[in-house]
Amino acid sequence: MQHEGKEALLRTEGLTRRFGGLVAVSDVDFDILPGEILGLIGPNGAGKSTTFNLISGFYKPSAGKLTVFGENCTGKSPLTISRMGLVRTFQHGSLMPSMSVRDNILLGTIHGVRGAGKRRERAAETAEMLGLTPYLSEEAGTLPHGIQRLVSIGIAFAARPRLLCLDEPLTGLNQTEVANTLAVLEKIRDEHGCSVLLVEHNMKAVMKVCDRIVVLHHGQVLASGTPAEIRADKSVIEAYLGHRHAN
Ligand SMILES: Nc1ncnc2c1ncn2[C@@H]1O[C@H](COP(=O)(O)OP(=O)(O)OP(=O)(O)O)[C@@H](O)[C@H]1O
């Protein structure tokens, strides 16, 4: 499948994951295109984390196919997939709190950059890009939450992925920190052509920054389209309202 001449960076076809009798993700098809920020949203329990774990190799699919950068990656390990250029963060942070920001970012260069000098250069460039230069020598765990979240993105981006997958990077951030992080994501996309997959509950932020959005509900794709299309989609509105009423 091509989208206006663009070949997908990532494609799922019939992606399915069962946990015993529960089908967490069922027959999910979607693409991520070069240079786009794709939002993956859905009410609690919709299957977002499971999908995220499937595409980064942390879970093996029960059925279906995963293609990353044109290669069949179904059942491949997280390390193989990350070395190909799909790098992820984790919901509860991906940093080493007792290490400096510099050493944390250096962790992200281990597989992709040869030589200590080049690694330090990459870490410095990454910090500059994310506005983390003033914090390079600070112990990461002592920094404000918003800065720690950026360091987690910095570790992932230091590998210069072609596809950066972020698991709820905005949780617990204030408005200024959210705006700052969204600006960083746009910079990563605009200056490096890196695509971003954003799994996120902050709907306002998703609507603002994403080029396209895929909505999951009960483990299936309920809708996909531009933010304007998703905002106007009756089935999406019902899924979220129903969910809110259920709680
Ligand atoms: N390891 C697991 N074992 C059993 N069931 C699981 C497991 N992981 C997820 N599930 C179930 O699969 C369904 C989808 O869960 P998932 O965590 O993917 O949803 P989510 O959209 O990420 O939710 P949230 O927004 O609350 O994080 C839920 O019913 C959940 O209870």
TrEMBL record:
<dbReference type="InterPro" id="IPR003593">
    <property type="entry name" value="AAA+_ATPase"/>
</dbReference>
<keyword id="KW-0813">Transport</keyword>
<feature type="domain" description="ABC transporter">
    <location>
        <begin position="10"/>
        <end position="243"/>
    </location>
</feature>
<dbReference type="Pfam" id="PF00005">
    <property type="entry name" value="ABC_tran"/>
</dbReference>
<dbReference type="InterPro" id="IPR051120">
    <property type="entry name" value="ABC_AA/LPS_Transport"/>
</dbReference>
<protein>
    <submittedName>
        <fullName>ABC transporter ATP-binding protein</fullName>
    </submittedName>
</protein>
<dbReference type="Pfam" id="PF12399">
    <property type="entry name" value="BCA_ABC_TP_C"/>
</dbReference>
<dbReference type="InterPro" id="IPR032823">
    <property type="entry name" value="BCA_ABC_TP_C"/>
</dbReference>
<keyword id="KW-0547">Nucleotide-binding</keyword>
<keyword id="KW-0067">ATP-binding</keyword>
<dbReference type="InterPro" id="IPR003439">
    <property type="entry name" value="ABC_transporter-like_ATP-bd"/>
</dbReference>
<dbReference type="GO" id="GO:0005524">
    <property type="term" value="F:ATP binding"/>
</dbReference>
